[in-house]
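For the sake of clarity, the format in which proteins appear in this thesis is described at this point. The record quoted next illustrates the convention:

___
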Amino acid sequence: MHRKALLDLLARYRAAHPEEAACADRVRALVETHADCFLRTCAPGHVTASAWVLSPDGRRFLLTHHRKLGRWLQLGGHADGDPDVAAVALREAREESGLARLHFGYAADAPVPVDVDVHAIPARGAEPRHEHHDVRFVLVAAPGQTVAASDESHALDWFEMDALEDVADDDSVLRLGLKVRRLLAAGAIRLAA
């Protein structure tokens, strides 16, 4: 079953984060009940994946000012049929940043999400309101690369970790950034590839 890997990942995430069981269970329910959960056409929502991108030294993070939503967000997007959410997060981060060399910074043996989130996307044009069931990872950029915003962004910028509360105007982005900051402080993120 193409959904089994994500269901297993969500079970591990839920066990590691029992305080977030309700959110993990919402994502699991969507995945279990909708065979098309990795497609944009899945209603009432679908699986997405995103990445909190860190500078090589871990002192800065990269956000995109999303063209459609008009907010600073982590990089990410639709699975478009791909059930490998880690691969989706990596693909989207590369496409939206122009950074070719990125590595997963959390759990070296296999990419592990640092967060899961369900958030509403407002209706826009012919697209009805729906939910993104987002699985989130940490990526670290290799040194010596230049970022380039995609056409999905108004802007793309690096921010100092201590500016997180000033930049993140979305509760879900702030929660993700605070988690990453705690992991950095604990030495749990591998900065060097």
